[in-house]
Specification:
Elements: E1 3-15, E2 21-29, E3 32-38, H1 40-43, E4 47-54, H2 62-70, E5 76-83, H3 85-88, E6 98-99, H4 101-104, E7 110-116, E8 121-123, H5 125-129, E9 168-170, E10 174-186, E11 191-195, E12 205-209
Antiparallel strand pairs: 1-2, 1-12, 2-11, 3-4, 3-6, 4-5, 7-10, 7-12, 8-9, 10-11
Length: about 210
């Protein structure tokens, strides 16, 4: 699985060749530095570790400072490992080399985007699970339209089943969106225009896998 680390810039829309208005996300993909190369002989599997984003040395743990110095680069904010990356890009992803977006992707590729969804705090069932509310005065209550209503049976099983959809903390989770199309690449600015939405707020880290 090859890929790259990036940052979500924001959303926009473009018109396709057939005149449709397509929502898309702008991602600053790279440049990333190869900070470690793993192989079957020493690690048991092939993988490449990429690092992205500058970080102050005073805010970086000393073990990580040494790790980055070994790769000949400055401290980075985000470090991600891509398994089996080296098989496809043998010789292009050696230690200390810089990886940019147009080395990995071409226009028309389909990618998977991984990000951390926006945290929404404690939310009710309408926002968290898409309940329609109980305006029809059913489900065990009559005057609280956005409440869940009845959540259990009577004398049997005399408990609430595990997994019942209820109110609770929402968002802030790792989310993977599959099969987003790369619509446009701007190599001079390391920007990718990807169809659809990508989880996370603006300026949040995003992982794109091919």
């Amino acid at each position: 699985m090859s890929g790259i680390i990036g940052k979500k810039i924001g959303m926009t829309s473009i018109f396709s060749a057939d005149g449709r208005n397509v929502a898309c996300t702008l991602v600053e993909a790279g440049p990333c530095v190869v900070t470690q190369v793993k192989n079957v002989e020493t690690d048991g599997y092939n993988a490449v570790q990429l690092a992205y984003g500058e970080r102050k040395e005073k805010n970086t743990p000393k073990p990580l400072i040494g790790h980055f110095k070994k790769a000949g680069t400055t401290p980075k904010q985000k470090v991600v490992e891509f398994r089996d990356f080296r098989v496809e890009f043998e010789g292009q992803v050696d230690m200390g080399k810089t990886v940019i977006s147009d080395q990995i992707f071409v226009e028309g590729d389909f990618v998977d985007a991984i990000g951390t969804s926006k945290g929404k705090g404690f939310q009710g069932v309408v926002k968290r699970h898409g309940f329609g509310g109980v305006g029809g005065a059913t489900h065990g209550q009559h005057n609280r339209q956005r409440h869940p209503g009845s959540i259990g049976a009577c004398s049997w099983p005399s408990r609430v089943f595990k997994g019942m959809r209820m109110a609770g903390r929402t968002g802030g989770n790792r989310v993977k969106v599959l099969n987003l199309k790369v619509l446009k690449i701007y190599p001079e600015k390391n920007l990718l225009l990807v169809s659809g939405s990508i989880p996370g707020a603006k300026n949040s880290f995003v992982i794109l896998e091919k």
